[in-house]
Amino acid sequence: MSNLYVRINPRQEQIIRLVRSQGYVSNEDLAQQFDVAVQTIRRDIGFLAEQGLLTRHHGGATPNSTIENIAYNERQILNLKAKDAIGRWAAALIPDRSSLFINIGTTTEAFARSLGGHRDLRVVTNNLHVASLISGRPDFRTVICGGELRPKDGAILGAAAIETLDSFRTEYGVIGISGIAEDGTLLDFDLSEIQCARTILRNSQRVLLLADHTKFSRLPMGRVGGLADIDDLITDRPVSEEFKVLLDAANVTLHIARTSQ
Questions:
Q1: Which residue, 74, 88, 101, 230, could crosslink 207 as a Cys pair with Cβ 3.0–4.6 Å?
Q2: Which residues of the chain have pLDDT under 50?
């Protein structure tokens, strides 16, 4: 088992394997199996959950789902400092008077919050929260996709949204993602989201992918594309040497937006 960012000790690696094979394992069972205190297991579970390697529950842990995303209100606060840093860095790459797509996700919303110093942007988005964040700017021209609104996270999806996105060609596409495989495959959960993201990839001159470090340990089932479909990866921690090789081969520029301590 490998991880692109963090080092885990042998016990933690075995915990991940047990959780993935059994579906749910209690802290008490793990403590007994490894002959350590329950408090030690709780610390392990907490650390692994923070890295996105499993899901912590009261009394135990379960694997991360490959078919359902984390709830929006949980994603809003998950790695908030990292997302804000990524959003600020990505915003600095966008010149004034640019045109851009902004898609669904809490990291792209952090990016939208960082556009306050920009002028004369033309934005096309299928994210209602993004539209709300920039709606007060009279010098921004904002196009909101038609389609079906998903109330839980403000996503606008469906055939009408795809048609709206496909009606534009922008200088920049700013997208989030739910997971990145070790071979560079870009992954997401929902087919409608995937179709919208692919439309943005196809219609952007330069694509910025915003992904905090937890996305490298999550493996949704749906394929959005690959590293060859993006131009810049903005993340919050260094990646492995193996992944750097993939980025170089795909001619992707890596940006590390470190959080302030």
A1: 230
A2: 1-4
